[in-house]
Design a protein that fits this description.
- The protein has 109 residues and is of the alpha+beta class.
- Helix content is 16%, strand content 44%.
- A six-stranded mixed β-sheet has the order 4-5-2-3-9-8. Strands 1-6-7 form a three-stranded mixed β-sheet.
- The chain is globular.
- The chain has two helices and nine strands; from the N terminus they run βαββββαββββ.
């Protein structure tokens, strides 16, 4: 089992988006790319199936996929879906991040 979690709120949001798009097997892919104002940035997208090097955790029937390169950078993280006055977004609470930018989409280790 990977040391990463998908909250029920995030799972419900992924399921709702997948249903609107007619996808039968809802999966959210989290990857880490170089860039952003703090060095690394999170990238989210719906996925149809896991790749060979993916780790998949399942919450409430929804998969969270993380590739083998990104996994060490997000190990111990919790992926949540948060709605507030500023908007709604997927959010990563990453204990490995030494700092993050003001928008919360990029981080450094």
């Amino acid at each position: 089992m990977a040391d990463i979690a998908l909250t029920p709120a995030a799972a419900a949001r992924v399921a709702a988006i997948a249903a609107r798009q007619g996808r039968q097997d809802p999966r959210l892919r989290l990857s880490v790319d170089g860039g952003g104002c703090a060095g690394f940035q999170y990238k989210f997208e719906l996925a149809d199936a896991p790749a060979e090097d993916d780790t998949e955790i399942v919450t409430d029937g929804v998969g969270l996929l993380v590739d083998s390169i990104s996994l060490p950078l997000v190990a111990g993280s919790v992926v949540d879906y948060v709605e507030n006055l500023g908007g709604a977004a997927f959010q990563v609470r990453n204990p490995n991040a030494a700092s993050s930018c003001g928008c919360g989409t990029s981080f450094s280790v």
